Amino acid sequence: MDYMKSFGSLSLGSRLKRLSDALVQDVIRLYQSQGITLNPSFFPLFNLLHQQGAMTVTEAAEKLAVSHPAISKISRKMQREEWLNKTTDPEDERRQLLSLTSKSELLLEQIVPVWAAIQSHLDALITSQEHPLLESLAEFESLVEQHGLYAPVLQQLERRNESQQVVIQGWSAEFKAEFKRLNMTWLEHYFDGELTDRDLEALNNPEGFYLARGGYIWFARSEVNNAVVGCVALARHENGQFEISKMVVKENWQALGVGRRLLMSALDKAREIGASEVFLESSSKLERALQLYQNFGFQQTAHPDGCSYYSRSDIYMTLRF
Fold it and tell me: Which parts of the sequence belong to the N-acetyltransferase domain (predicted)?
């Protein structure tokens, strides 16, 4: 068993490194079989200069989207092995240009067919995949470039520390507007603002829709700034049934255990008052929420009415006590 795969996204860098190492080792063997002595790590800069001609270290770094020090380091190695020249730009003495040597030009006749064979085989492997690797990699690189890793993870760690100062509290009229705002934001984000008459009644008059009918509402509130970051309602139905309803956690507070604590509060209350069953309706697009419900023991089953009143809901789940 390859345990690296079981680590999920945490092993992404390690798996990419392992794949890179395996490919590089095969390229080294191929080069050696053809009498080629070029280090495979030189390929990006070597091929860039081959295709686009002489340029500065800064220009090469920008085109390859790597750091200036990285290009400087590899270019020095290539100069020592006589694959590169570094000369003064005749049009600007302040600029130093990198260019291929005559030794490199001779190598091109030998190495270009090898590159073509490697590319042909790799393209065939990629084409056979259900999800083409290069397109997926380009998309992932774009997302990482856009969102980064350090800043959002650091922010999440800070949020996690703050989440320890989040309290779950029962209904308070001062948070009535927040109950509606959180749910409206959720509906707009996931379901294009779909709003039914039942939604309007619940959000405009939660006291009447939930509390007056024997239900409950909880809020997740940050003690740092008194901001409401989540909410959930428990609606009473007939025959000892209760419904988890209007559960929302602000996007930047998700994956920090806030939703779990809200759901736990609702389920603890349902048990306390002798509920026979708790049900909920959800959507297959809300994968994280569905996983949370499953972790608490909810099981998907057929809707008792055949289909939901809400067009956005295609999942019906129950938890029996």
Answer: 177-321
The phi, psi pair for 300, rounded to 5°, reads -75, 140
- The dihedrals phi and psi of 226, each to the nearest 5 degrees, come to 65, 15
- The residue from 89, 115, 148 where one domain ends is 148
Residue 318: how many other CB atoms lie within 10 Å: 15
How many other β-carbons are positioned within 10 Å of the β-carbon of residue 191? 15
Can you tell me which residue has the tokens 């085109």? 63
C-alpha torsion sign, points 316, 296, 229, 272: positive
Each residue's pLDDT tens digit in the chain (321 positions)? 778 888 888 888 998 999 899 889 999 999 999 999 999 999 999 999 999 999 999 999 999 999 999 999 999 999 999 999 999 988 888 899 999 999 999 999 999 999 998 998 888 888 888 887 888 888 888 888 888 878 877 777 677 777 788 999 999 999 999 999 999 999 999 999 999 999 999 999 999 999 999 999 999 999 988 999 999 999 999 999 999 999 999 998 988 889 999 999 999 999 999 999 999 999 999 999 999 999 999 999 999 999 999 999 999 999 999
The reply to whether 125 and 193 lie within a common domain is: no
Q: Per the structure block, which two tokens stand in for 106? A: 């001779």
SS3 84: strand
**Residue 46 in contact with residue 104, Cβ under 8 Å?**
yes
Q: Do 175 and 76 share a domain, yes or no?
A: no
Instruction: Give the CA-trace dihedral at 33, 35, 38, 44, to 10 degrees.
Output: -60
Same-domain pairing of 31 and 173: no
Range of the domain at 135: 11-148
* Residues 174, 142 within the same domain: no
Domain end among 115, 148, 181: 148
Total domains in the chain come to 2
